[in-house]
Specification:
144 residues; alpha/beta; five-stranded mixed β-sheet; 44% helix
Length: 144
């Protein structure tokens, strides 16, 4: 596991430890992490505070995002994929898309390179969370 993906996994675990949904994200530019975040929908009672949005918020204004890579433990949803496309992020590395399909096709149709790691730890973490919190998960993905 590379250091950037590990940092995203650590963010997911931090979110879980706070009583939230275990999804983490980091933004990398020039070989270093410039932003990190995790899903805070529960903690902040904010429906748009997804991991990728928190990560971008924490990165702050950086000018151009064209030379950045976004890591996320879960394939980004349409909300977060929209931010990826809007800001011109050219590469997304997702931990997995088995538990949630996400918006891979949308990102790819806008020229974003998407890598799905099919990471067993991320799959296991999400499967456990979904099994233990089905109603919260349904709310998070808009299926409640």
């Amino acid at each position: 596991m590379d250091e950037f993906f590990k940092a995203a996994v650590d963010e997911a675990k931090q979110g879980l430890s706070e009583g939230g949904i275990p999804i983490g994200s980091v933004l990398v530019k020039d070989g270093k992490i410039i932003g990190r975040g995790h899903n805070k929908r529960v903690q902040e009672s904010n429906p748009v505070f997804h991991a990728e949005i928190d990560c971008l918020f924490n990165a702050g204004r950086i000018g151009s995002y064209k030379d950045t890579t976004l890591y996320s433990t879960l394939m980004p949803c349409h909300l977060c994929a929209g931010a990826v496309v809007q800001f011109g992020i050219k590469k997304v590395i997702a931990g997995e898309s088995l538990t949630f399909n996400g918006a891979r096709e949308f990102m790819e149709s806008h020229g974003v390179e998407v890598v799905d790691l099919e990471d067993k730890e991320c799959i296991g973490m999400m499967n456990k969370f979904i099994a233990e919190n089905p109603e919260l998960w349904s709310e998070d993905i808009g299926e409640l």
